[in-house]
Amino acid sequence: MARHIYVHNPFCARKCPYCDFYSVTDASLTKAFYKAAIRETELAGPVISGTAGTNPVADIDNRDTVYFGGGTPSVPDSRFVCSLLDSVVKAFGVASDAEITIEVNPSSVSEEKLADYVQAGFNRISAGVQSLDDKVLKTLGRLHDSKGAVDALEKIRKAGFENISADLMTGVPGETPEGIRRDIDVFRDLGVKHISTYSLMLEEGTSFFDRYGKTIEELVPPEIEREMYHGTREYLQELGYETYEISNSALPGYRSIHNSSYWNSCEYFAVGAGSHGYIGDVRYGHKDDLSAYIDEMNKITPEEYKAFLEGNMKDMKSLYVEEILTREDKMREVPFLRLRTSEGILLDEFRKMFGVEFEDVFGQAVKRNIGNGLLERKERTLRLTRSGLDLANKVIEDFL
Predict the structure, then answer these.
(1) 281-334: per-residue pLDDT in tens?
(2) How many CA atoms within 13 Å lie on the side-chain side of 116?
(3) Tell me: the pLDDT tens digits for 87-129?
(4) Residue 27: helix, strand or coil by DSSP?
(5) DSSP-derived 3-state class of residue 168
(6) Could you tell me the CATH superfamily of domain 4-263?
(7) CA 20 to CA 169: how far, in whole Å?
(8) CA angle 250-102-73, nearest 5°?
(9) Residue 92: what are its φ and ψ, rounded to 5°?
(10) Which among 142, 204, 135 is positioned nearest to 167, based on CA atoms?
(11) What are the boundaries of each domain within the chain?
(12) Are 50 and 85 in contact (CB under 8 A)?
């Protein structure tokens, strides 16, 4: 079975006002962080190199994946990023055909960095474009403008990347359905194979939350936001992009294998401050504390790290256990994760994994949501209806 590794780069040039992911703008600890992250891979490799990314609920592309997210991995000097990737590949024995992704921002990517990424082994790239409308980009507090985004995508293609993904944010004040369709057309023309479309959310603790609070619904009424969402999905499908998850669409053969591993309950290892992983029965995290991470990775012993991953050690300075999953917990996670996908819950796969029928466990929730028109049965699957997509969180909560 495949192995999946997520690497969190915590550095950003500037904090976006809507983002609640862990990041810092002080680059003074860059070298120390990457040294600590390399040590973490060296500690973890021997522990889990023989384990597999278990895949209990779906038959996906069985390839190793590495994903450099953040933060903004394209902000630091590329030599740091490439050295860490080299360490990850060696420590975990990553296969030569692995999907290896790096996130970049148009404002911090360059031809030189792209050449280094290709040389190091990155073969998939995800560009944080968000919009090609300068007014929308200004509202979002992005450092690039539309021309900068287009230039970056052209550089990415010329550097040799074929598997290109781009982010597109919907439901932003001042945005229109027509503008979104124009952005998608440009993406397609520039060779973008995968498009992630995220609705703007007001996350507590962000400057957007302080600025808008609950007034975002007055600026972008829910019915307009839903029109944008469904209209975007339909337009992508008209152009040949398969909408395989609530927020993700791809041309055939270009789905994100790494992201799919999350929705299919696969194990994944995590590297870096602010990252989260899942090994065996343990869901664990690294605290949002760069200094604590560096200090702990420099001091922790291989025995202590192994004990932690196996769930035999209490929380540490930067590492902590989020939860120890029981069989029942894992069953509840199936609808939580799989209802995000277009295929939905695969009933035969659930039975193979847990030895019981899905509806023997969740019968009442299934019956209730089918009756309310939010779920539909298609052969041996259960998936959200169009109405269910609008109330996905409500449906999922019914299974928890």
Answers:
(1) 889 999 999 999 999 999 999 999 988 888 787 778 899 999 999 999 999 999
(2) 19
(3) 999 999 999 999 999 999 999 999 999 999 999 999 999 999 9
(4) helix
(5) strand
(6) Aldolase class I (3.20.20.70)
(7) 15
(8) 135
(9) -100, 0
(10) 142
(11) 4-263, 345-397
(12) no
